Amino acid sequence: MLVRTRFAPSPTGFLHIGGARTALFCWLYTRRHHGKFILRIEDTDLVRSTPESVQAILDGMAFLGLDYDEGPFYQTQRIERYKQVVQQLLDEGKAYRCYCSKERLEALRECQLAAKEKPRYDQACRNLVEFKNCPYVIRFKNPDKGEVSFKDLVHGELTFKNSELDDLVIARGDGMPTYNFSVVVDDMDMGITHVIRGDGHINNTPRQINIFKALNVKIPVFAHLPEILEEGGKQKLSKRRGAASVMQYRDDGFLPQALLNYLVRLGWSHGDQEIFSADEMIQYFDLKKVHSSPAALNQQKLLWLNQHYLKSLNPEEVAKHLKWHMDDQIIDITSGPDLTEVVKAQAERCKTLKEMAEKSRYFYEDFKAYDEKAAKKFLTPQTLEILQLIYNQLEEVISWKAEKIHEIITKASERLELNLGKIAQPIRVAVTGGTISPPIDVTLELLGREKTLERLHRAIERGL
Ligand code: GLU
Predict the structure, then answer these.
(1) How far apart are CA 310 and CA 197, in angstroms?
(2) What CATH number does the domain containing 349 carry?
(3) Cβ < 6 Å from ligand 1: which residues?
(4) Ligand 1 centroid, distance to 303 Cα (angstroms)
(5) What predicted TM-score, i.e. pTM, was given to this entire model?
(6) Which residue out of 141, 151, 236, 239 is catalytically annotated?
(7) pLDDT digits (tens, 9 = 90+) for 379-430
(8) E-strand stretches of 226-322
(9) For the segment 355-393, what is each residue's pLDDT rounded down to a tens digit?
(10) Torsion over CA of 151, 155, 160 and 165, rounded to 10 degrees?
(11) 308: domain CATH number?
(12) How far is the CA of 9 from the centre of ligand 1 (A)?
């Protein structure tokens, strides 16, 4: 059987972590089984859906590298098709027009609540035969008796009594289909074999299964993914929190590889392995190993993963992402070292790309002021001699390489009978403005001859 999955977000906000995790699990399952992954935009809520949200979803998926084989399909472009299937169910006597007014339904609900009953439609219009010339919705004739069972790949066998399920509205007064109905028509038309989505949809599944049955089509396999909780595991993840958006993670300096690795571990595990390349995830991913209990965000783990990938990925790949942050921080990289070299030098001491960009600004543009404490401590009359000596020696250097610079600094330290750190720190403050940078020889090589000499000179002048 060719596996066909879909990711079906409603474009009412950015792609948040929960949605991205669903998309990832669908994608992994599909790639693992050499199937087709379909993107479907569920935009029938005309008030809340926006083109910006559609774009945010597409951007988020592109950032994570979750490519799809078909789509994006838009539900708003399929309205005629839903109407056709509604008509089919009406013709077959599997759906009916309900003329009940809002007021009647409201009163019914209040009565049921007062009697401590579960509110549900009393099927007043279910057996009407005459056509009334007044507004109506279309309801699905849910079976009255029996049960609906399905084997969820994550939760196991789940059973619901039909008596608990309502005669669901499948088309509103204006003819627009409702969620539970359009999803079934789409999953049917798109030949979806596996519906992988969040836990929040479990209660919709028996309703949808009944509609599948009424349409006489094969029912897909379902897998409902566990909820994601906030850090600490107590609160539900709230979509409104900016930090939960995939693009916010990009803006904060996370690599897509790190984010994917982080997402895959939100509810899935493979032994005690923590680091997974995309290929490994595809190779090992199994819905049966998805946990049924919620997973919680863990920022420390994400930072750890990010640093792991900053250090271990091909530096050229990391440099591409760093470029985005340099642009974002308006750092013009044309007058400075190659970004790949910056990545090699900085990966060890940065947890995010944002931090790496911030900490690499001095390679490209002059810093505005010395870090006050650092200057006080390291740019003193005593260190003037060091800076002057280093300046003189470096001025002679033609081939500007870390090895040569290292040699000069080592010789100076011997001559002045000072340890290397005592020499390096004043130079570092002089050329970067602060006390933190890659090893001093690497820093100077990256900075280049001209900037190094210029900044050393300035520091010397300042101290005279
Ligand atoms: N559009 C639904 C949502 O964003 C998902 C529907 C589904 O996966 O069946 O929650």
Answers:
(1) 31
(2) 1.10.8
(3) 8-10, 42, 183, 197, 201
(4) 30
(5) 0.93
(6) 239
(7) 999 899 999 999 999 999 999 999 999 999 999 999 999 999 999 999 999 9
(8) 228-229, 295-296
(9) 999 999 999 999 999 999 999 999 999 899 999 999 999
(10) -110
(11) 3.40.50.620
(12) 5
